[in-house]
Amino acid sequence: QIQLVESGGGLVQTGDSLRLSCAASGRTFSSLAWFRQAPGKEREFVAAINWSGRNTYYDDSVKGRFTISRDNAKNTVYLQMNSLKPEDTAVYYCAATPRALYGSSWYGGNEYNYWGQGTQVTVSS
Q: d(Cα 93, Cα 5) in Å, to the nearest integer?
């Protein structure tokens, strides 16, 4: 059974840090990403990473604050979130596909076949 299980969310204050983890099971994935959805808003791309970890992609709103990484031996992807802001408050979802993505396909939610259940991140002001 293929599963993606996120962890690490929580309630923090502005300026704090959190590290999200997403453990995959059942198979390995070439492309991994994080998306988020705030209340009343559409799901949005946050960050993505290729198999080797050499190529990473970020939404402009998190560049310089968030870092995506992966450990293929553990089949796990991470999202280190620093300098958190209230506008980062959302449910964060891990997404995966066995395909190698290119160009703008990294940013589209429809490109990812598998999704986790989400983990809540709340940043208080």
A: 9
Residue 103 gets the label, from left (phi > 0), alpha (psi -120 to 50) or beta, of left
Give the residue ranges of the chain where pLDDT is below 50.
none
pLDDT at 11: 98
The pLDDT value recorded for residue 6 is 97
CA distance 116 to 94: 5
pLDDT number for residue 97: 96
Please give the helix or strand (H or E) that residue 94 lies within, else none.
Answer: strand 90-97
Question: In the chain, what is the straight-line distance between the N-terminal and C-terminal CA atoms, in Å?
Answer: 40
How is 21-62 classified by DSSP, letter by letter? EEEEESS--SEEEEEEE-TTS--EEEEEE-SSS--EEE-TTT
pLDDT of residue 78: 98
In 3D space, the residue among 3, 58, 9, 57 whose CA is nearest the CA of residue 28 turns out to be 3
